[in-house]
TrEMBL record:
It comes from Clostridium senegalense. The keyword Cell inner membrane does not apply. Coiled coil: none annotated. This is GNAT family N-acetyltransferase. Keywords: Transferase. PROSITE patterns: GNAT (PS51186). The keyword rRNA-binding does not apply. One of its GO terms (molecular function) is acyltransferase activity, transferring groups other than amino-acyl groups.
Length: 171
């Protein structure tokens, strides 16, 4: 059964494999954590409880899309509890990634659908998601979840000008 769950030890080995797939395939659209170098569960707990965060960071709840029967980590999605001015321009409420070997199987669309339900239960009534203008896969996922393209804005990210699509949905 494919489901969204809180991150847990049962899927950690598979999560690390997904991290390696991103590294091996030079994927930069979303960054899984290097679970070999620190305890990611402490990080997730700090974000969920909004403590020990770096400056300009906001609280967030992390979830993993997993296949229970295969003990397989498929993807990760985070729901930010609030937005800063910077997140209104780039980042939004939600960030997500699907492990490379599971791309193009509909998991991104399914995971976002489940996360939107969770966001509504968390009390978020209007949600923003952004993606780079050339990230057609994410744009397609947002469209399939009835998100509405508000506009495209130019952002300066790590010294580079990036055209960003901003999608909104009332929950």
């Amino acid at each position: 059964m494919i489901r969204l769950t809180e991150p847990n030890e049962k899927y950690l080995k598979s999560y690390i494999e997904a991290y390696d797939e991103y590294e091996d395939n030079h994927v930069t659209t979303y960054a899984f954590n290097d679970a070999r170098s620190y305890d990611i569960f402490v990080k997730y707990d700090n974000y969920r409880n909004e403590r020990n965060l770096k400056p300009n960071r906001v609280g967030a709840s992390y979830f993993w899309l997993v296949d229970n029967e295969k003990d397989l980590f498929i993807g990760e999605i985070s729901i930010r509890h609030n937005l800063t001015d910077a997140l209104l321009q780039y980042g939004g409420h939600i960030g997500y990634g699907i492990r490379y070997s599971e791309w193009n199987k509909g998991y991104g669309t399914f995971m976002l659908k489940l996360a939107l339900e969770k966001a509504k239960k968390m009390g978020i009534s209007k949600i923003l998601i952004t993606c780079d203008d050339d990230n057609y896969a994410s744009a397609k996922i947002m469209g399939k979840n009835d998100m509405v393209l508000q506009d495209k804005v130019e952002n300066l990210i790590d010294g580079q000008k990036i055209l960003t699509r901003r999608y909104w949905k009332t929950l």
